[in-house]
Design brief:
seven-stranded mixed beta sheet; homodimer; binds adenosine-5'-triphosphate; alpha/beta; binds magnesium ion; 16% strand
Chain lengths: 259, 259
Amino acid sequence: MGQLVAIVSQKGGVGKTATAVNLGACLSAIKRRVLLIGMDPQGGLERSFGLDSSKDRPGLFEVLSEQASPADVVYRCHERLPRLDLIPINVASVAEEARLVEILANNAGRLRRVAERIRPAYDFILVDCPSRLDTPTQAALAVADSYLVPVQCEYSSMATVGNVLRAALEVRKNANPKLGIFGFLLTMADKRARFTIKVIREVRQYLKTHAFRTIIPRDPRVAEVPNRQQPVVAFDMESPGSKAYISLAREILGRSAPG
Amino acid sequence: MGQLVAIVSQKGGVGKTATAVNLGACLSAIKRRVLLIGMDPQGGLERSFGLDSSKDRPGLFEVLSEQASPADVVYRCHERLPRLDLIPINVASVAEEARLVEILANNAGRLRRVAERIRPAYDFILVDCPSRLDTPTQAALAVADSYLVPVQCEYSSMATVGNVLRAALEVRKNANPKLGIFGFLLTMADKRARFTIKVIREVRQYLKTHAFRTIIPRDPRVAEVPNRQQPVVAFDMESPGSKAYISLAREILGRSAPG
Ligand SMILES: Nc1ncnc2c1ncn2[C@@H]1O[C@H](COP(=O)(O)OP(=O)(O)OP(=O)(O)O)[C@@H](O)[C@H]1O
Ligand SMILES: Nc1ncnc2c1ncn2[C@@H]1O[C@H](COP(=O)(O)OP(=O)(O)OP(=O)(O)O)[C@@H](O)[C@H]1O
Ligand SMILES: [Mg+2]
Ligand SMILES: [Mg+2]
């Protein structure tokens, strides 16, 4: 049975989408079957694979508004990564975004049914959430087994970690008693910057074993992903970003149960 | 009469809060009276001045829920910047965030009345919006004279500029016919990175005179702001980030009307 992990952060631009794309690719390259689900209306996940929001083919929006079934919305991401699939959010306007948020808030059962239908076919399901702690993220946490929080190695990102923990505890209390911590991932580390060292120390002190040992460095090749429309391992296996996401995938597979 | 400018981007981590704090400080240092308003529930703006969300003193949340008047929620930001004031959003939980969003959606008049009450006392009012195009941002655009869009010099940020333009046009059509473009600001430019040059070229080609000439470089001193709890000009006038925000303030004051 697949582990469903929500990738969550209230702070924007910390590497949620980059982690979904690149960790997903690395896990699938080590023989795991992985599904990525876009839950961020800006559609960064689908754009990372060249699949822009388009009404010619259905996505999560159509499934949750009961115009398509889950099987219709699963897409292959890359021909050299056959075990990596994607469900794009497929929201083409602010009006559709509002409709999706309304469905998630009022029909929690729909997302749950989708998750239960697809879960058996995968080892990992990674859900890319938007930078907010309200409905879309709460809905993802309500069906998740655990959550992964990217923490950019900058002061501004540290400050909101407490809000994420509080929001996850709320969901655990009200909707999903099994919700656990998958881990906190330090991202965009630049060892030359004074604040990077400080943030790493604080995260390790405050979050202890919940922080992954692997740290993702700032690597311009990772920032090329939205332009190359493929994960960094697919075009530069030797880059620092690729090596870090591969080591993260191995660290995850080396653990028995999640965090 | 003060110009009310909403700082908007669907992409997260592009420098919305950094621009509100640092551009606000520079405009106030050149003798303009400036008010910053936090509209992002994560509270990054107030944290940049050391004013965490606290229920000991009221903020925007209390004004919009009619527990306080606008005059009660204006705070001084820094003793050496006497012309820079701040209204913190003051949202302390996800439940309060939901309440605020509900008020903004159903009582558009309240924010409008607050804006009209405070506008005469300032030359510029900068509203720091969250990384989303739904209710909080739409409410800010509905009362704004114009909007400023930070565009991080990375591929992922370019991709959502079209969504911002579409969302602003919707608001212009339905709620605020005077809404104009204040400008598009290139941020975190790193001239060594190939994608920086490409994004600058594309923004200039696509947005022409709506793009500010001033470009904000990636500068670790700017990333120190949340830790030092003051704008970068207040602790390092000579840093590349300070010089860029000072030149941006001069470029804005040198124009007759907004773009
Ligand atoms: N390790 C890295 N090194 C360099 N750049 C990175 C790295 N990880 C992500 N980036 C870049 O940083 C920016 C932010 O990353 P990303 O979009 O994944 O963050 P996010 O948390 O999903 O943002 P949002 O809040 O918009 O959802 C993107 O331009 C991305 O390409
Ligand atoms: N010119 C710059 N040089 C270096 N770092 C910067 C610069 N501008 C902003 N930063 C840093 O980049 C990160 C993102 O900036 P900021 O928080 O202002 O973006 P935002 O768009 O407001 O993000 P959010 O989506 O969370 O609201 C922060 O850690 C900030 O300190
Ligand atoms: Mg994202
Ligand atoms: Mg911000």
